[in-house]
Predict the 3D structure of the following.
Amino acid sequence: MNPRTVCAAVMCGMLVGLLGLAITMRPEAVITLPERVAAELSRSGVSHPVTAVLLNFRSLDTLLEIGVLLLAVVVAYALRETQADPADRMGLDNRLLHAVIAWLFPLMLLVAGYLLWAGATRPGGAFQAGALLAAAGVLLRLAGIRPSDFAHTLGARAVLVFGLAVFLAVGLGAMAVGGHFLEYPPAWASPFIFGVELALMLSIGFALFSLFELAPPHPVSNKGARERSET
Amino acid sequence: MSNALLFAWTGAALCGLGLFGFIVHKHLMRRLLAFNIMGSGCFLMLVGLAQDGRGPDPIPQALVLTGIVVAVASTALALVIFRRWFRLSGKVRLPEDA
Amino acid sequence: MQEGLLPILVLSTSLFAAAVMFLISERSAALRNTVNLLAATVQFLLVVWMALRVLGEAQYETRLSIVAGIDLVLRADALGIMFVGLSSLLWLCTTIYAIGYLEGSPNCTRFFGFFGLCVASTIGIALAGNLFTFLLFYEFLTLSTYPLVVHHGTDKALRAGRIYLIYTLGGGILLLLGVAALYAYVGNVEFDAGAMMPIEDETLFPALSWIFALLIAGLGVKAALVPLHSWLPAAMVAPAPVSALLHAVAVVKAGAFGIVRVIYDVYGITFAWHLGLLEPLAVLAAITILYGSLRALTQTDLKRRLAFSTVSQVSYIALGIALFGPLGTVGALAHLIHQGLMKITLFFCAGNYAETLHISRIDQLDGVGRRMPVTSAAFTIGAFGMIGLPPTAGFISKWYLGLGALDAGAGWAVAVLIASGLLNAAYFLPPLYRIWFGQRTEPWPEGNFPRWCETSPWLLLPTSITAIMSLIAGLLAAMPFSPLYWADVVVGRAYLQ
Amino acid sequence: MSTEALVPWLLVVPLTAAILTLLVPERMRAPVSWIACVPMLAGAVLITVLRTGATIYSFSGWEAPLGISFTVDGLAGGMILLTAIVSAVCAVHARTSLRDEASANAWFWPLLWFMWTALNGVWMSADLFNLYVCLELLGLAAVGLVALRGTPEALSAALRYLLAALLGSLFYLLGLALIYGSYGALAFTTLSGVLEAVPTVYVALALMAAGLALKTALFPLHSWLPSAHGGALTPVSALLSALVVKASLYVLIRIWLHLTPASGSLAGAATVLGLLGAGAVLWGSWMAWRQEKLKYLVAYSTVAQIGYLFLFFPLVTSGEARASGLAYDGFVLMLISHALAKSAMFLSAGNLIFAVGGEKVSDLAGINRIRQTSMVSFGIAGVGIMGLPPSGGFTAKWLYLQSALITGQWVWIAVLLAGSVLSAMYIFRVFHHAYLDGPPQATFRTPSIWLESSAMFLALSSVLIGLSAWAPLEWMRLPIFKGSH
């Protein structure tokens, strides 16, 4: 038995042990936060508490989270430029796939829209909708329908930063009318939030899709193939 | 045991599992998967522990949503770099693990 | 001008020269030399002015707060002035010498840059107003001299540099620990003449004793007290002006000066004596004196012999201080200056021999007196001074040291002084005999010097100046402004309080 | 004017700059960034000068614990200023030094701005989960910057770094889950003083500490650092060593100061951290001494210096108020002066490598034939790293020594002194090679004035900070340590 496994086993055991100890011996404290959320929900502009937390109470987290996603795409761009991409193995010209996409694609767009809209009242929201958009894009890409060299245009980068930009703009707008950063006036809260979510959906969708697009699978060198087979 | 607590325990188990895989595996893809398992464990703990005997709590759910996006971004970044590394070196492990 | 700034001004003259050196290119030699000479002259004049004012009880002090309770203090007191005067004067001489010595050799700007930094740190050490400031410049001196020691970049030089670093940085660590401990236990430690450490409770005494040991060990490295002296002979590979400055003022004297500061201005001589810290130091100094002289006897290389002679001579200062009494102190302080003048003369001469006739070993000195009379005369003056023959400066300081020893009832110290005097004679007279009475058969190598001059005038001028001064310092010892006079002033002020 | 209004701009400006640098054509990205540096510097200076007491800013207008609040106290303000200075200088350096690296030159800038955003967030955020997001943003930006070079070495280093960072964040997240699960709050203001000395809390704190130590590359979890910092592009190395590793340590300090249970002693944990720090000092210096490549030497020296920073924990828990105050001052000064000196050192190392055209320490032979500026700035920075006077490193070490002497903790004194000897060993090894004369046919390029002046500026400031240490220490002192002076 090699030391690495032993070490892994020990660490795993310790972690689980500690967590178990922590879970079982948890102190009972008075929790008020959920009530606070419920109390302020009416002023948050949406009726779904999770969305309220995400896009109003703790909207800064969401703002930075979009930054994280954008960051990943930026790195993908940077690395793509250091190595030119040969023709990849995607775009299998498959009749059936094309037919399915013809049915699925509009449906996916529709569902994405619905999810976005539903976010205000029940589970759903920008990320789920964006993920669906990205999936639709991936389907197209797999079917060989590639958006030419869109990836390298200013337009692509604009779509990527659109969500973050709108989010920032809304936050600054709130400051302009005398509030704190991202502090929506209660009357305007719901349109603001919806606008932000719309922008976020587009950017998230395109970001996820570009991540797929920018690191495509390629026919690998035999060396690599061998290693892959042995692990 | 409330089912929320069951989530917490499952989360703890997943964390242990993920950590084990993360350490024991050398193939970068496996390590990445292990990381994601561990991440799911964390999220389960976060939600389960907070809701044990207190009813639903939107805050941890929102946190987990944010956490998922972050985890997705990190995984995607890792995959991007991993692909480039694989194409340059033809290796699927870090040099010291080869 | 607000006079508190004068110490800063003195310090910054050499810093300025150094800064310029690091900016100008290797080719602009004329600019380099002018800047250095100018800075050195200005600094010397400033120091003279400052000295006159200090004699009139003027107080110069500059404070710069670093952190709460820790100040950077530059203060010009009588003792500091002595050392500043020595270093600025010798900086001027050595700069002239170095210009001649390094003519046409590479990396001159780098050399002069670090040379200026080295002088600046010496000035800082001299003017330091508290132990922290002293420590600051003391460590900085180590850093700025290393590049000078390894200047040639040969393996030998780099090895010497490594030895130098190991010793001095090691000493620096001890000193740092000692100073930090002193600040932690006693608080801010200002230098103040004739101070008496304000400690009543006996419980601190053991701590103070080992702190004293740490401080002396840290300073002893640079002062080359046995057994911490080995770096000094090794550092001989440095260019002649560097060795000259290292031995006469910069490094070795910084250590000795530090010991004086610690005993007089930090612990207070009476308190140190009360703690019984002086006898061990005196014994150590005596051992160093004899050991250095004995090792010097066996050296065949001229510069190495001079180096060991330094090891022995510098300990006179420590000895004089450790002999609890005013006369010994006067001798010690006077020796601080005298030895500087004499030793730099000797090193200049050694440098002249090496540069002009490629003489490095003693057995090559036969008959050089006829080829280079001026240099040889200077060498003779320096050597007589080292031996302590009247009327040279060396005689004066040794005389006072002897009186101090008798005064303190330490007969053994007198014996040590006499013994070392004999040893000095034993290792200086043979080379002198070779120089004047030795016969050389083969002709001297030719150098491109003006016919009227035995070597490059750049080299000869400072040599003769320092030689003459070491003579005058002895002849006119009773006159005002002679080193002895200054020593009297310092000790007077110290013992009055 | 109140500093409160400044707080959001410290995030908005860099985010806007990130967006702009993504939109404008590639040759315009550097100029845009330079322009954006100006408001950042101005804001940092203003918030340091104008701040009185702790400034609290709640985003989206919701007070903590419901919303997210930022707290700008002395420590945060100082770090913001430090970040602004170092990043701006690195931007100046990058403008010139990245010219040859086409794609790096284009994409360095947005990454820089995301990193800057994340750093400011970390310094100010007073909310456990928001800190997690900021740390993630920071980590991914840093990984991206490391990968920017695109060489196999850079990519593997980035992967190693990424894996470490991700694992670290998960541990942090676990601790967070436990704390929220027990106390139902994330804001420091709500949590501080509430946490009891119970196993759950200790487990949570231990998990967080472990995760943050991994992100900070505390010995023996440091193995990812040298390749990441040593293999990256020069300005990136400088930023990473100067600022990024400090961020996770900073979070650890915050947790230590705000979230540790009032009852129950931390001496044990502090000793463990201190011992690991000691190990880092010794091992890191030793490894630095053994390195062939100049930048790897500097990177290992970072490992060692991180060790010094961790000595803060045992010194501050000594129980003696004055000693704790000195320890905190020493820590702050060590942090600042290391940031300045180490970035200066990396930039100078980059210039030297550019000058001699080789990455090895031994390639420096003959460097004395060209202008000495880069060598001198490396030397000045080296003085700070060795902790010799006159430098911030020396003053910081002095404060540490005072603190340790007052409480008679001789172990840490020994570590401090041994550390300075070891660091002298590897720094002077570089000088040693610089004094040798190289092969006569070797050709050297003199770095441009921009490269040299940026390195020199940081080096000189690392000296000045030591000679006027009282000013930053006054600004950055926290209320809990106020009484001790």
Notes: Chain B has three helices and no strands. The mean pLDDT of chain B is 91.
